[in-house]
Design a protein that fits this description.
The protein is mainly β. The chain has five domains: 82 residues, Sandwich (Immunoglobulin-like), CATH 2.60.40; 82 residues, Sandwich (Immunoglobulin-like); 79 residues, Immunoglobulins (Immunoglobulin-like, Sandwich), CATH 2.60.40.10; 82 residues, Immunoglobulin-like, CATH 2.60.40; 64 residues, no CATH class. The chain contains no helices and 47 strands. Strands 2, 5, 6, 8, 9 and 10 form a six-stranded mixed β-sheet that branches. It starts with 10 loop residues before the first strand and ends with a strand.
Length: 418
């Protein structure tokens, strides 16, 4: 008796289905088929036969993006074959940060920008955070902070998410520097010589603040605090003082504070005592220091001399009545001082006796500026008591005393005596 065997060709009852997996995971495709055994399976990727993939289930381990493709299987037996529909494998990649946001330091009012670079399956979703709190509308790979103020100083990071997962960036800090600004400017000072002077300035801004004081635009060595002191101020210290304050954000210079140092008068050149001859011109000189204007008043024997108000006092054609003790008082708005005494001595030299010879007479004369002199004559200088007074007698003639004596034999000597 003969047996009839009828082979049934394969028929797929369950098609392989599409898969979406994260890179690094495993994925399986399977197919169910009927038909006369044995059934043989051959999996294909992108239409290309896959070696040694001959089971009803295909498993791919440690999936990479290279595995993303269409997968199908051919089921065959002695009666024929059938090919499944394509199953699509989609491989998603979690976000991976390739460039972290970097910390920034900006000056207040500037713009600050953080950025992050990421690879992975698109689309990416970004959420920036400030001190772990979400920043509103900050959902791009770049975070721009315009006109940054100190309130924006914080620690920033970003959370990146896609279908495969999420990742959080490293923290990047934002430091906002504040330039110096004065809350107290140095003030002008007016002091007396010898006083202690202190200028003070106060500034705000990002620490550390560095101070440098200046006088008339020139830096003062060692003057690097918010206050500058000048002990025992002298006139040479007068000037315009200012301070420059700097920090990492910039610098600012204060207004000028004028220092005025007033000084009482002080005699720097004393008047000198003098001995002069009657009829000459005399200059008494003194020089003083101190805050202008300086006023001079010369004195004679402690009595003020009218009109003698300069540092030089001149006496023209000095007479014996000018012999005295002279001083000068120098005053200004802050005090006065009196010079040392300068003694003026006016001496009268002996008169000059003039002799004019005529044919019969000798005419002897001397100036009436020398009153009280008597004309004497002698015939012998070696004989004691030989001088004769009023021989001849003198009379006033104009500006001179005049005596006339007749010419006689022998020699005769004349002199004036007081």
């Amino acid at each position: 008796m003969a047996t009839l065997t009828v082979d049934v060709p394969p028929a797929i009852t369950t098609q392989p289905t599409n898969k979406v997996v994260v890179a690094g995971m495993s994925v399986s495709f399977s197919v169910a088929a009927t038909g006369t055994s044995p059934l043989n399976y051959q999996w294909r990727k992108g239409g290309i036969v896959m070696d040694a993939r001959t089971n009803a289930m295909l498993t791919v381990v440690n999936v990479t993006t290279n595995d993303a493709d269409t997968y199908s299987v051919i089921v065959a037996n002695m009666a024929g074959s059938v090919t499944s529909s394509n199953a699509i494998l989609t491989v998603t990649v979690p976000p991976n940060i390739t460039a972290q946001p970097q910390s920034l330091t900006v000056v207040r009012g500037s713009n600050a920008s953080f950025s992050v670079t990421v690879t992975g399956t698109l689309p990416m979703r970004y959420q920036w955070r400030s001190n772990a709190v979400n920043v509103a509308s900050a959902t791009n790979s770049n975070l721009m902070i315009t006109n940054a103020q100190t309130t924006a100083a914080a620690n920033y990071n970003v959370v990146i998410t896609n279908v495969a997962g999420s990742i959080t960036s490293a923290v990047a800090s934002l430091t906002v520097l504040v330039p110096p600004a004065f809350t107290l400017q140095p003030a002008a000072k007016t002091v007396m010589v010898g006083s202690n002077v202190t200028f003070t300035a106060t500034a705000t801004g990002t620490a550390p603040l560095n101070y440098q004081w200046r006088k008339d635009g020139q830096e003062l060595n060692g003057a690097t605090n918010n206050s500058y002191s000048r002990p025992n101020a002298q006139v040479s210290d007068a000037g315009n003082y200012s301070v420059m304050v700097t920090n990492l954000a910039g610098s600012i210079t204060s207004t000028n504070a004028a220092l005025v140092v007033n000084a009482k008068p002080a005699i720097v050149t004393q008047p000198l005592s003098q001995s002069v001859v009657i009829g000459t011109n005399v200059n008494l000189f003194a020089e003083a220091s101190g805050t202008a204007p300086l006023r001079y008043q010369w004195r004679k024997n402690a009595a003020a001399i009218t009109g003698a108000t300069n540092n030089i006092y001149q006496i023209v054609n000095v007479q014996t009545n000018a012999t005295a003790a002279y001083t000068v008082v120098v005053t200004n708005n802050f005090g006065s001082t009196t010079s040392a005494v300068a003694n003026l001595t006016v001496s009268v030299p002996p008169p000059m006796l003039n002799l004019v010879k005529s044919t019969t007479n000798l005419i002897l004369s001397w100036s009436t500026n020398w009153p009280g002199y008597t004309l004497q004559s002698s015939t012998n200088l070696n004989l004691a008591g030989a001088w004769v007074t009023n021989a001849p007698a003198a009379v006033v003639s104009g500006a001179n005393y005049v005596a006339t004596n007749g010419i006689s034999g022998g020699q005769r000597f004349y002199r004036l005596k007081k």
